[in-house]
Amino acid sequence: MADAKNTRAGGLSRSISLPALVFYGVGTILGAGIFVVIGKVIGEAGALAPLAYALAGLVAFTTALSYAEISARIPTAGGPIDYVERATGHRRAGSLAGWLLMAANTVSAATITSGFVGYFGVFLDAPGWLVAGGVILFLGAVAGFGMQASTGFMSITTTIGLVTLLAVLWATRDGLAAAPALLAQETAALSWPVAAGLFAGAFLALYSFIGFGDMALTAEEVKNVEATMPRAIVLALIIVFAFYLAVSAALVGSGSTGALAQSDAPLVTAVERAGWPAWPVGVASLFVIVNGALTQMIGAARLLMDIGRDGRGAPALFGRVHSRTRTPLAATATISVIVALLATLVPLKSLAEATSLVILAVFTAVNLSLWRLKRRGQPAGVPNIWRTVPVVGALTCAAAAFTQVAFWLTG
Questions:
Q1: What is this structure's pTM?
Q2: Residue 313's CB: how many other CB atoms inside 10 A?
């Protein structure tokens, strides 16, 4: 289908291909999880961190399959706004899902920016607010230039990130070899406090997979979206799942987890402990971390655009698309300012936990929406996953959210 036919008049431009979308997804998921949050996951789950990532991945994969189908059924920049509204027939339900997801994406971008500040501190001691403000200003400008600029930038930085992770795995290969025996030992001695730490770690690790939801928000900018989006979501999740398991296993198998849990730059700490120079990993990590913040900001801006465009409680100004860049500049600028403030004022772990809880609520709603839509019929030309998949996805997401709330209430 020609790009001209794929582009709404006065709207977004369809310029994203399958490889670019896979890089976009891998970049945001890896940037959020493996470079920023892995130390916090190890702090909760200890040596069972790989198992925490495995549990989180299973929860995420069922919902990712639901997104693969529903984003092909309803390929709009509003994502869950339109999924929930069409499934329930209630405009307010869709609007609520949109506002929640926009808030989660904004907080997530701030989480990743906080992680960037931690890695930046390895090289230069500068005020956190200054570093956060500078990186958000840069990312806001990239997002404002358009999706071709954003995906091109991310293709380069994601390639750097993948090469870096392979280098980390090589440096910590002895830890990777020792991890299976350590995991077996820890699992055999499992107690309630250890299990509680495992589930708390899995909840934090779930944050590391949420990027596939941001992929769906680019639906109005993807070529041949009905075929491209589902393939890209599945491919991206498989790639990052393999890296999460391997890297977390290598880190916990390489020695004491205490230093990794306390480090602002856990991969740098792991490589340095293995006797390798730390600065190449630190520099490369900075490039990859910004991927995650960029995609979260783009996703939040697209949601704000859809909310403003459709009169869902935001000024119509946010729904306007610039005639030259084909991006919502007002929405992008607003999200950038909010992200900078959150990254400066709120601790990283609190940001990650808040993001995960809101995302789980949205994921539950998306799964239930797909289940309801599938009961009405199955359109041609889109994936047809088993009807039990969205049911399992909704149950696991709801259970994960309930478990985390219970942990909070019981201390």
A1: 0.78
A2: 12
User: What stretch of H or E contains 336?
Assistant: helix 329-345
CB 383 within 8 A of CB 69: yes
| Three-state secondary structure call for residue 380 | coil
DSSP for residue 35 = I
Q: Which residue has the higher pLDDT, 372 or 227?
A: 372
What is the C-alpha to C-alpha distance for residues 144 and 62, in angstroms, rounded to an integer?
33
CA atoms within 13 Å, Cβ hemisphere of 138 = 12
272 vs 258: CA distance, rounded Å:
15
Residue 337: which of 120, 110, 175 has the closest Cα? 110
Mean pLDDT of 265-292: 82
The predicted-structure confidence for 106-155, as pLDDT tens digits, reads as follows 888 888 788 788 778 767 788 888 888 898 999 888 888 877 777 788 78
Instruction: Give the total number of structural domains in the chain.
Output: 1
Distance separating alpha carbons of residues 196 and 258, to the nearest angstrom: 18
First to last CA, the chain: 55
Phi/psi of residue 16, each to 5°? -100, 125
Q: Inter-axis angle of helices 38-45 and 49-73, to 10 degrees? A: 130
Dihedral sign from CA coordinates of 400, 404, 410, 411: positive
Establish how many alpha carbons lie within 13 A of residue 108's alpha carbon, considering only the half-sphere containing its beta carbon.
36
Q: Distance (Å, rounded) from C-alpha 33 to C-alpha 42?
A: 12
Per-residue tokens: 150: 């954003």
393: pLDDT confidence band, cut at 50, 70 and 90? very high
Query: Residue 400's domain is classified under what CATH number?
Result: 1.20.1740.10
- For CA atoms 408, 189, 206, 389, give the dihedral sign: negative
Amino acid at 128: G
CA 86 – CA 64 distance, rounded (Å) = 19
Contact in structure between 400 and 203 (CB atoms under 8 Å)? yes
Segments forming the whole domain that contains residue 80? 3-410
Report the b/e string of 320-333 with b at 16+ CB within 10 A: bbeeebbbbbbbbe
Q: How is residue 362 written in tokens?
A: 């949205």
